[in-house]
Amino acid sequence: MAATGALDDKIYAVSETKKVSMRELLASFKRHGVARVTDLHLKTGSPPTYRADNQLKITNGRPLDARTILALARTLLGEVELATLKKVRSVNTSHLIDEMRYRVNCFYDRRGLALAIRALDTRTPQIEWIGFPNGVWEDIVKLSQGLVLLTGTTGSGKSTTIAALIDRIIKTRPCHVITLEDPIEYQFESDISLISQRALGRDVPSYERGLRDCLREDPDVIFVGEMTDQDSAAWTLTAAETGHLVFSGIHTRDTAGTITRLLDMYPPHRTEEVANQLSLALRYVISQKLLQRDDEPGRVVAMEILNNSYAISNLIRQVKPEQIYSLLQTHSRDVPEQRMTTFERSLAKLVRAGKISRAEAERSANHPQILADELKREV
Quick one: CATH architecture of 12-120? Predict the structure, then answer.
């Protein structure tokens, strides 16, 4: 449904003499490029604030009031989305505006309505652009079943990496792909494959219901936007166990923490059962962070990669995720049976290549002393 407000309406009074529209507020993304300006925050009581070069930049405009925020929100939300916002106090959507795609989250805090708007590249990302530290993506796109998890904090590029993997799959083999997203970020076109993209709230009420439906819809590949709770995790694992290739995201800082987080979704008496299920269904965990480049404007990805080899699977089954890191360090040859790496090794490689500064690597390392050792290591 079309937005109920006009993008070109002069809504926000920047000063006594100047008003701007939502389209003008969004213009900074196109002017500077999404590699530099990634987010716009509109919040009651504060001026518009952009995230540029990974730093928040507060503009000099007047603080936004409640009436202005609502009017700006109505330029991006349809009536159904506004009703959802009123009922559950938050809503997600996405829009293609002036050849750029935006992901929009509207929510309430103690001061009133707020919008978080993220700019996305409209081009479907190519796998070669992502920056994998080894050839693991070649193994992933050949998989016919199992679970592949992309993890990291918000804004770490998980959706972009998954989109690149799915894009390569649908262009290289005929298959039926079903996605469950909140909201839909990258749009895929059916070519030799058949693509069905479903948005939460619009096409399906929940991840759990969408996954239940998926198993009756003859999919080969399933993308679950995020595993948020025990029910969505259970159905995701079931789909991976029953002969489907499943991609999903989860908010964790590293690969071992991902295993712990999944097991912690269940009560203690089920830990052993779920650990055994996960050890069989899991194929890869890729944790990633986006770092400020030192050689040119923009950001570059650092990855930690877990390949569920026999040794890793055994540790998961025994509920010993704390021992996984040592295997990531030693099983790092760029061959299909290994292809693992730690964040610290990935960071050190980027420093040696001149892509990031040592200071940026040190800020991002999960294990600073191990990073120091990696930087000293002869390659």
Answer: 2-Layer Sandwich (3.30)
